[in-house]
């Protein structure tokens, strides 16, 4: 009988450690290769994200506007007030009394002579009536004495009375006449007190304000109702004394009413011949007809007056320049790079700056990002056109 082969009975127990030792170099080599491969991959990945270009050489993103050719004409701007042609604040001037009635409210249209409010003046009315009756009695007495003096004068001619008696009658008649005139003067004074209790519209207009209601106590110097006439409004303001020649009567001026946003053109109607002693300012007014009464009064208005002749200039956004006195520093784009230049300032408008024509029209000037760039920096330009503005000078 033959002996069994190793394949039939299996390996001997002593051969298994030898097989494990034979596999160890392969595992170590494979692990080392895997680690090196992963390290190389991470290095290549990190190296691919490193920026090898200097930041100073990278283009800087900026927004630019193109300079435009234009004409600059100084426009002086003032802040004024829209006032009514006339305004009246109605209240008592002589008497103090309680308010009896107030017949109108703000916005009501009134006619001249229309009763707007009344005061409770029964005492003044009664006193006026008493003085009136007293005046009538004195007048009747004076007429009787005058007739008697005339008759005595006729008797004096016939020698029936003495001259002394005739003179006494004549003097008595003159005394009563003087007393009558005095009483009539008192009656006129009391009539003024009575009339002061009735407030009437002094002109055609509108009620602007009402400050008292029935039951309030009114005294001289207070007012209950104000009336304005807006058929013609006055735009008024004060300007520095150096602008005296600029606001001469007849000068064309534009004004914008802030309450409505509307703009109008008018002419200066009048100018004060003297400056205010305390402020050294000159007062002028613009009359503007408003038959439809569309403009609210006691509101703010901006007044614009052109001065001088238009001069050629280059127009750029105000945000593109740093202004120091009469010089403006801007960043222009030359061959794709930033360059700071300085130009003489002609003037400015609401959002635009006018500089000397040495800044050629079409030149790109930096508006956004100019504070972060230096001369020679490469720029990534984004063009944004500047909008038109009207020239002005404050």
**Kindly state the mean pLDDT as a whole number?**
82
Order of helices and strands: HHEEEEEEHHEEEEEEEEEEEEEEEE
Gyration radius, in Å: 50 Å
> How many E strands?
22
- The CATH architecture of the domain at 62-74 and 309-392 can be given as Beta Barrel
Helix proportion: 25-40%
Query: What is the overall shape?
Result: elongated
Structure annotation, total helices: 4
| CATH uppermost class of the domain at 62-74 and 309-392 | Mainly Beta
How is the secondary structure organized here?
Blueprint: H1 6-9, H2 16-48, E1 60-66, E2 68-72, E3 75-90, E4 97-102, E5 109-110, E6 115-119, H3 122-158, H4 163-195, E7 198-200, E8 205-210, E9 217-218, E10 225-240, E11 252-257, E12 263-271, E13 281-289, E14 299-306, E15 311-317, E16 321-324, E17 327-334, E18 337-349, E19 352-355, E20 364-368, E21 379-383, E22 391-392
Parallel strand pairs: 1-21
Antiparallel strand pairs: 1-20, 2-15, 3-10, 3-14, 4-6, 4-9, 5-8, 6-7, 8-10, 10-13, 11-12, 11-14, 12-13, 15-19, 16-17, 17-18, 18-19, 18-22
Helix pairs in contact: 3-4
Would you give an account of this structure?
- The N and C termini lie far apart (130 Å).
- With 394 residues, the chain is an alpha+beta fold.
- Among the domains are: 62-74 and 309-392, Beta Barrel (conserved putative lor/sdh protein from methanococcus maripaludis s2 fold); 122-194.
- Mean pLDDT is 82; it is low at 386-394.
- A hairpin with a 2-residue loop joins strand 18 and strand 19 (352-355).
- The chain contains four helices and 22 strands.
- The strands form four sheets. Strands 2, 15, 16, 17, 18, 19 and 22 form a seven-stranded antiparallel β-sheet that branches. It has a six-stranded antiparallel β-barrel with strand order 3-10-13-12-11-14. It has a four-stranded antiparallel β-sheet with strand order 7-6-4-9, with no helix packed on it.
- Helix 3 packs antiparallel against helix 4 (163-195).
- The protein is elongated and about 190 Å long.
């Amino acid at each position: 009988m033959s002996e069994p082969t190793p394949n039939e009975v299996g390996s001997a127990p002593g051969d298994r450690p030898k097989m494990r030792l034979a596999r160890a170099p392969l595992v170590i080599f494979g692990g080392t290769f895997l680690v090196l491969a992963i390290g190389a991959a991470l290095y290549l990945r990190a190296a691919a994200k490193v920026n090898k270009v200097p930041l100073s050489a990278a283009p800087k993103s900026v927004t630019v506007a193109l300079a435009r050719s234009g004409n600059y004409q100084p426009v002086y701007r003032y802040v004024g007030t829209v006032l009514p042609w006339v305004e009246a604040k109605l209240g008592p001037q002589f008497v103090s009394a309680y308010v009896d009635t107030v017949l109108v409210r703000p916005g009501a249209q009134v006619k001249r002579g229309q009763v707007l409010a009344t005061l409770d003046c029964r005492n003044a009315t009664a006193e006026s009536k008493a003085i009136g009756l007293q005046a009538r009695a004195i007048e009747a007495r004076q007429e009787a004495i005058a007739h008697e003096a005339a008759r005595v004068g006729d008797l004096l001619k016939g020698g029936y009375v003495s001259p002394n008696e005739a003179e006494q009658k004549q003097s008595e008649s003159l005394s009563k006449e003087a007393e009558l005139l005095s009483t009539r003067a008192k009656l006129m004074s009391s009539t003024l007190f009575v009339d002061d209790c009735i407030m009437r519209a002094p002109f055609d207009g509108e009620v602007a304000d009402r400050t008292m209601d029935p039951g309030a106590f009114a005294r001289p110097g207070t007012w209950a109702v104000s009336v304005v006439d807006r058929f013609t409004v006055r735009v008024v303001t004060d300007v520095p004394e150096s602008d005296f020649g600029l606001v001469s009567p007849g000068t064309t001026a534009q004004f914008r009413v802030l309450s409505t946003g509307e703009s109008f053109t008018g002419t200066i109607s009048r100018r004060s011949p003297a400056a205010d002693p305390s402020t050294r300012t000159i007062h002028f007014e613009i009359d503007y007809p408003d038959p439809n009464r569309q403009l609210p009064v006691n509101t703010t208005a901006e007044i614009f007056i052109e001065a001088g002749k238009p001069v050629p200039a280059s127009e750029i956004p105000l945000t593109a320049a740093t202004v120091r006195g009469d010089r403006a520093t801007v960043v222009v784009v030359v061959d794709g790079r930033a360059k700071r230049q300085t130009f003489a300032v002609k003037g400015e408008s609401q959002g635009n700056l006018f500089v000397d024509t040495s800044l050629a029209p079409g030149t790109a000037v930096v508006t956004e990002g100019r504070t972060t760039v230096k001369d020679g920096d490469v720029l990534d330009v984004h063009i944004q056109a500047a909008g038109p503005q009207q020239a002005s000078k404050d």
